[in-house]
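=== Discrete structure encoding ===
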Amino acid sequence: MVDGATQGGAPADRPRTMYQKVAADLRQAITEGGYGSGGRLPAEGDLAQRYGVSRGTIRQALSVLRTDGLVTSRRGTRRVVLGTERVQSFGELLSFTRWARSIGEKPGGRVVGLTRRPADETERDQLRLVAGAFVYRVLRIRTLSGRPAMVERTVYPEHIGALIARLKPDAVSHTVRLEEQGVMIADAQHTVDLVRADADDARLLGCRPGDALLRERRRSTDPAGAPIEWSDDRYLPGTVAFTVHNSAASGSLARRRGTPPPPNN
């Protein structure tokens, strides 16, 4: 994720709304096994009283957990915990740092390699660069509370890579640093599959060559559609799960039936 240097001397992330704080607190309790798989969360009224907020705020927080696949979606009943995976939703463009914090982990990052070189054919295609253009390639290890979780191999166009090159090797979130420079991520395309760990993966993650890793390849773009990064991230099993939320109301079938798409909020 375009995230490579956030927490650690960096200014705090933008403040979360109350429902997001409630969702983060409940998510942490669920992932730590506080309710157990198949257990029930307290009633909405009890949660509202605990956090000193309205039931509407609690419903918003529960909606976030439902989208992440952590609780059932039934309204009017106590929500059932579906599982304790450390899910990250593609519905939100969360950096690794922000996601880690949201599940109660302390994110870390360390650059182990940074090179400037001519872009290869794939990089030129993904980043829409002309022949002869240069890129910065960053190899970084990401940790959760000090434990290796992911190897990040990210390629940046030269003008953005130059900003990354100025950061300290142990900067926690590159995403936040780029935002401070006016570089904003608006969209991302993700491809998720399984790969076998190569020698570098094994050395950096502490696994064995040939072990299965969850790979996420991602191209992120700015509000104007210009590519910001092309990344190949490889996670150890058990460190993350991804969720995708679909809605029939916004699908192609519904539109063919004449149902207008929902407005963007």
